[in-house]
Structure formats: C-alpha cells, structure tokens
Amino acid sequence: MKKRIENYDVFKETISENNVLAMAEQLTMYETRFLICYMGSSIQKIYADLCVDIKRKNDINHTYSDSYDLVQECALFLCNHYGKRLNDVLAYDKKDKAITVKIACIRAMSKLITRKTSDYLRFVSLEALTPVSEPSCELEVDVAKDYTVYDSIVES
C-alpha cells in the first residue's frame, strides 16, 4: 500500500515544538504543489525531491536535497510563532486584508523558492555539459602575411 504524506489534521493544532516539523513539511508540500502550474518544471523537480526527502527522512543514509531547505525555512518561521495557530492574524496589509501565520510563512518560502528557481535557470551544471554543448573558444593564430604584391601595386 502506498504511504501517504498528507496529514492535514496538523493544520488545526497550535504551533509547538512537537508539531513544527510536521507543519513545515505539510505547508511546503502544499505550496510547492500549488506553484507547479505557475512555475513549471523547475518547481516540479523541487516538489519531487521534497517528496523523496520527506518519505526517507528517517533513513540514516539519506542525504537531503536542496529542496529540504524550504522545509527548514518554514520550520524556522513557525518557531517564532509558538503558541499560535496557523489561522491567527499577524497583521493587516494596505488593503486591510488579514495576513495570517500561514500566509506569512508561505510568503517567506516563496522568496526562497524564487531565489532557488532563478539560480536554477541562470546557471548550468558542469556535469551536464557535453563536448557538443560546451562553448567553443577559438584562438587566433598569428600568421605572417606577405604584402609584396600589395606594395608593388601601391608603388605603381
């Protein structure tokens, strides 16, 4: 039977040290799954890596991917709000719309996601380069040129 990662009952609880990691993992999965339709393949890779990291987090030999940074960022944000619930209002924006703990956490994660995806799009891995796709740099060779014919035409 397939093991399910989702446990949305965690969202109804008060934030404490016992459930911060579970909340952070669920919020991160929720947000990355939502962003797949907007950001495409880069966030899809982050989501796939995140699923593997969460399923294998109890494995001693597992090395976490860079996607797990999102979970840690979310957990760090939630640690600042112990004793509150995810739907508690932190502040109001310019249009008097309530900003809850959940929305503020998602915004903090979104900043990290956009930073990661922009770096992902900008840089090329050296292992991914093949001899065909490598940029070619041609060196100019100094060739001694004979100007005797030119000089004879100019003199006449």
SSE arrangement, N to C: HHHEEHH
Mean pLDDT: 82
Overall morphology: elongated
Enumerate how many helices there are, as a single number: 5
Q: Tell me the structural class.
A: mainly alpha
Number of domains: 1
What is the CA-atom radius of gyration, in angstroms? Answer: 27 Å
Tell me the span between the first and last alpha carbons.
Answer: 95 Å
* Low-pLDDT windows of residues: none
Strand order of the largest sheet: 1-2
What's the count of strands? 2
Oligomer: single chain
Percent of residues in helical segments?
40-55%
Largest sheet: 2 strands, antiparallel
Beta fraction? under 5%
Molecular structure report:
The structure is a single chain. The chain has 156 residues and is mainly alpha-helical. The chain has one domain. 49% of the residues lie in helices and 4% in strands. The chain has 5 helices and 2 strands. Strands 1-2 form a two-stranded antiparallel ribbon. β1 and β2 form a beta hairpin. α3 runs antiparallel to α4. The protein is elongated and about 100 Å long. 15% of the residues are buried. The model has no long low-confidence stretch (mean pLDDT 82).
